[in-house]
């Protein structure tokens, strides 16, 4: 949670420096309603099930529901426990082991899943190019919007630097331990990778569908807030915001960067900075709503998993 504290401090400092940005942040918070958050939940759950199917077809050595548990934990960890980059993926792989998979298969399947999700994001991000002509015809962005862009990106970079500084001491020791533990299994893991990468196209397709469902959530939220945004425009808007996140991938969970992307891209669709920022904050609230209960139950899952496998870790 130190990571979130650093982000809050960085964003708060930026807001305090600009009256215009202060006004936008206050307006965005007033835009958000309980309904606008809740309407995203069913679609997000469906998206999670699809992402779990993508993991499952890659052969992690567990049941489909074991893959669901892994994906749920990965998303919760990645969205909320951003103090350690990649912790969500590690938690997801650990969940596969606790569900009965071997450490090697869990590692390979998790790595392939990340590859599939990244490749699926490429055509989705290409939709962001459709925003550029709109920005050209709507390039009357006021000073406050530009302030939000600068503060969002700046806060995100400050956040990334803070995360790097906090983890710098333990990074070398952790890397050494991981290399030592995995060195003997590299060849075997490579063979498993070659055997299972044939399922990659199916996983990519499933992840592409899941990415598009993120745009559906933006559309439903916009409707709940009474914003004039079509389904296609909502998908393009989200793709533009996530394109910014992908470019500045060093920022954990895209803190600040996602918000800046929404504000700038939203102007191309006639949305005010307050409305665009409100949509981004709705997605953040959704992540908290779904992620916190999962993380609170994680120790229970860890205990039950260890009890089931008879030890602290699965076999290799």
Describe the protein's architecture and organization.
The structure is a single chain. Helix content is 80%, strand content 0%. With 316 residues, it is mainly α. The protein has one domain (2-59, 116-183, 199-296). The chain starts with a helix and ends in a 7-residue tail after the last helix. The longest helix has 40 residues, at 143-182. The relative contact order is 0.18. Residues 1-12, 181-190 and 312-316 have low confidence and may be disordered. The protein is built from 14 helices and no strands. The protein has helices at residues 2-17, 19-31, 34-38, 40-57, 64-80, 87-98, 103-126, 131-137, 143-182, 186-196, 200-224, 231-247, 257-267, 273-309.
Indicate the topology.
Blueprint: H1 2-17, H2 19-31, H3 34-38, H4 40-57, H5 64-80, H6 87-98, H7 103-126, H8 131-137, H9 143-182, H10 186-196, H11 200-224, H12 231-247, H13 257-267, H14 273-309
């Amino acid at each position: 949670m130190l990571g979130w504290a650093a982000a809050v401090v960085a964003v708060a400092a930026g807001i305090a420096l600009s009256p215009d940005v202060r006004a936008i942040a206050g307006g965005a918070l007033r835009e958000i309603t309980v309904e606008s958050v809740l309407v995203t939940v069913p679609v997000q759950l469906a998206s999670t099930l699809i992402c779990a199917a993508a993991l499952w077809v890659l052969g992690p050595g567990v049941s489909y529901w074991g893959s669901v548990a892994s994906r749920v934990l990965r998303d919760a960890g990645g969205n909320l426990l951003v103090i350690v980059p990649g912790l969500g993926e590690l938690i997801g792989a650990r969940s596969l082991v606790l569900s009965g998979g071997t450490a090697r298969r869990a590692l390979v399947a998790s790595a392939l899943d990340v590859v599939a999700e990244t490749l699926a994001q490429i055509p989705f991000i290409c939709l962001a190019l459709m925003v550029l002509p709109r920005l050209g015809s709507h390039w009357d962005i006021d000073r406050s919007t530009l302030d939000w862009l600068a503060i969002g990106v700046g806060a995100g970079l400050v956040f990334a630097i803070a995360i790097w500084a906090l983890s710098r001491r333990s990074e070398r020791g952790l890397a050494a331990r991981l290399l030592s533990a995995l060195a003997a299994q590299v060849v075997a893991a490579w063979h498993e990778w070659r055997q299972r990468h044939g399922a990659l196209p199916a996983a990519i397709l499933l992840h592409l569908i899941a990415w598009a469902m993120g745009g559906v959530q933006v559309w439903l939220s916009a409707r709940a807030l009474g914003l004039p945004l079509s389904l296609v425009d909502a998908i393009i808007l989200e793709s533009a915001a996530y394109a910014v996140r992908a470019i500045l991938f060093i920022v954990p969970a895209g803190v600040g960067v996602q918000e800046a992307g929404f504000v700038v891209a939203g102007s191309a669709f006639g949305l005010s900075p307050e409305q665009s920022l409100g949509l981004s904050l709705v997605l953040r609230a959704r992540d908290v709503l779904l992620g916190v209960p999962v993380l609170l139950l994680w120790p229970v899952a860890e205990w039950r998993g260890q009890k089931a496998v008879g030890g602290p870790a699965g076999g290799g």
